[in-house]
Amino acid sequence: SRPQKVCLCPFLPVHPLKVSTCLYIIQHPAEESRVLRTVPLLAACLPPDKCKILVGRRFNEDRYPELATVCRNPNTLILYPGAEATNLEEVAVMSSSPSVMIIIDGTWSQAKDIFYKNSLFRLPKQVQLKPSISSQYVIRTQPTNTCLSTLECAAVALSIMEKNKSIQETILHPLQALCSFQLQHGAQIHHSKEHLLKNGLYDKPMPKNKRKLRRMELLVNNVKI
């Protein structure tokens, strides 16, 4: 659905990737209207039955019985960082059967709202990624240097679960092309808020809310939040 000169189809895999892991993308409604969102690129890389997208803010068992069944499956994981989360590499070593992974798609505040206000998402095992790579999604501002887009999280997670590093490279290929096209046509590189604060480049008014101000101070001082 893009103009031909910036078409991303040549950067997608010729055939959908063969994976045993099924992704459930829980997408905040605000993401649907974003022009440069990454989930459509992710879906284009995978078979339809391996990338299911559910849009909404609230998910209960009555309205989403299939999702409730998935959340109760012992092989289901939810990718959400925190003190209760296990590093995905550790889980992948012990896992031998096909898994289901839930990923929340939205801004960090939107994802937090969805995770904590839906009890279903507390049922699966919570996992997180080690902050080992910087985001290549340079046309949107991230809170920290190691915050990743939904597509990047899925690419890294699938490569770990499938024990195949080439999956990550294949899924990131269209994202790299998207960012390259946007930069060629006038977009600017968006450094993370962490980078801007540390280098004195943050040009927006500082928040009056004490909690938000404290979070920004933690970013500057390299405290994990």
TrEMBL record:
GO MF annotation terms: tRNA-uridine aminocarboxypropyltransferase activity
GO BP, one annotated term: tRNA processing
Keywords for the protein's UniProt record, in alphabetical order: S-adenosyl-L-methionine, Transferase, tRNA processing
Matches recorded under InterPro entries: DTW, DTWD2/TAPT
Pfam families registered for this protein in UniProt: DTW (PF03942)
Catalyzed reactions: a uridine in tRNA + S-adenosyl-L-methionine = a 3-[(3S)-3-amino-3-carboxypropyl]uridine in tRNA + S-methyl-5'-thioadenosine + H(+)
Keyword Secreted: no
Stretches assigned to the DTW domain: 1-187
Its EC number(s): 2.5.1.25
UniProt keyword S-adenosyl-L-methionine, yes or no: yes
Broad class of enzyme this protein falls into: transferase
PANTHER family, per the entry: TRNA-URIDINE AMINOCARBOXYPROPYLTRANSFERASE 2 (PTHR21392)
Family: Belongs to the TDD superfamily. DTWD2 family.
Name the record gives this protein: tRNA-uridine aminocarboxypropyltransferase
UniProt organism field: Ptilorrhoa leucosticta
Lineage, highest ranks first: Eukaryota, Metazoa, Chordata, Craniata, Vertebrata
Gene: Dtwd2
